[in-house]
User: Which sequence fits this backbone?
């Protein structure tokens, strides 16, 4: 059984206690470079974990003489976080800066999302995975997660923050099932930039419009990123259970041989994750903050608390076709943690 520590939002003065009870001092040692992995929030989103909370984590890491930095990886869709320049700009807009948080921002997979280290995973879908290099190179990892609903597995918690967030942009394409980019020919100017960047020689320009040879395309997504006209986009599939397994296998590889602490924020819990602009309000009232060594236990405890407060199976109601237990069971099967937990209220 794993312990999951908890405070509610009326007890924020106990935040340091929460981190120490959860074992921050066993994760961070003097001079460790500590990656604090979070989500800076897509443009228009209001749900991301706010800088004032992140600043508190930074402060405690520094108190243990660690050297923290704030990080996330680039997205596969073209938005405000699809390259490091945009990503840092939106982070700053949302209040994440050295001055506000006390730690610098390093985008984990580099300028264009191609900076990764291959790590042995040895699982069903992946023998090797592509971990965003700054996360691989950091001595210690702290995953600060805003817990939300998510169309992939019903909810998005620590496992998703690690698996999807720890993957380089190329890795994210591997998790994704649909390979060949979708084309909106009306937007194509025929400029040919995508042809230059396609590593598989899959693109040609026919009558001043882009054309992709699906037999050659390897689904790397480079063309999507380099097109400045929004012609190409990812073809979202039905988000299968196989994708959930892949996500968990990525999380397994990211965490391999690492000392890690997980912190889940259960406030402003929305149906969709922080990659989306927030239009709808939260689905349950604010609950509190959890911390644990165990990514499975902390996500299990988070779901249970949400359901307890919502007095219903919230995520099954939000996504009737999704079994939120699937990712937890698969992660447990891979030995990443346990669904059996003890909730310790601080
Ligand atoms: S898809 Fe984009 S980059 Fe490629 S030719 Fe068309 S406009 Fe240019
Ligand atoms: S996804 Fe990659 S391989 Fe496929 S067309 Fe685009 S750049 Fe080429």
Assistant:
């Amino acid at each position: 059984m794993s312990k999951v520590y908890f405070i509610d939002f009326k007890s924020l003065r106990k935040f340091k206690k929460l981190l120490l009870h959860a074992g921050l001092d066993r994760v961070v040692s003097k001079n460790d470079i500590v990656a604090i992995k979070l989500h800076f929030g897509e443009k228009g989103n209001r749900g991301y974990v706010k800088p004032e909370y992140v600043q508190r984590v930074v402060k405690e890491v520094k108190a243990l003489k660690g050297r923290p930095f704030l990080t996330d990886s680039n997205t596969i869709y073209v938005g405000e976080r699809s390259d490091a320049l945009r990503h840092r700009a939106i982070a700053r807009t949302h209040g994440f800066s050295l001055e506000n948080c006390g730690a610098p921002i390093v985008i984990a997979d580099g300028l264009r999302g191609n900076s990764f280290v291959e790590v042995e995973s040895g699982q069903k879908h992946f023998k090797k995975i592509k971990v965003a290099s700054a996360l691989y190179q950091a001595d210690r990892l702290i995953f600060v997660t805003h817990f939300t609903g998510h169309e992939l597995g019903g909810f998005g918690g620590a496992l998703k923050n690690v698996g999807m967030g720890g993957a380089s942009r190329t890795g994210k394409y591997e998790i994704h099932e649909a390979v060949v980019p979708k084309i909106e020919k009306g937007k194509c100017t025929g400029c040919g930039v995508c042809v230059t960047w396609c590593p598989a020689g899959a693109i040609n320009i026919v009558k001043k419009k882009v054309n992709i040879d699906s037999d050659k395309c390897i689904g790397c997504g480079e063309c999507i990123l380099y097109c400045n006209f929004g012609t190409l986009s990812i073809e979202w599939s039905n988000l299968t259970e196989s994708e959930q397994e892949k996500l968990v296998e990525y999380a397994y590889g990211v965490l391999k041989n690492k000392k890690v602490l997980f912190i889940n924020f259960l406030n402003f819990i929305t149906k969709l994750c922080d990659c989306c602009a927030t239009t709808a309000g939260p689905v349950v009232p604010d609950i509190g903050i959890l911390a644990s060594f165990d990514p499975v236990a902390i996500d299990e405890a988070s779901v249970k608390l949400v359901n307890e407060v919502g007095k219903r199976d919230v995520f099954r109601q939000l996504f009737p076709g999704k079994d939120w237990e699937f990712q937890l069971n698969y992660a447990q099967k891979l030995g990443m943690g346990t669904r059996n937990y003890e909730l310790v209220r601080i």
In short: The pocket of iron/sulfur cluster (ligand 1) is lined by residues 188-194, 205, 210, 227, 229, 231-232 (CB under 6 Å). Residues 174 and 219 are 8 Å apart (CA to CA). The mean pLDDT is 93.
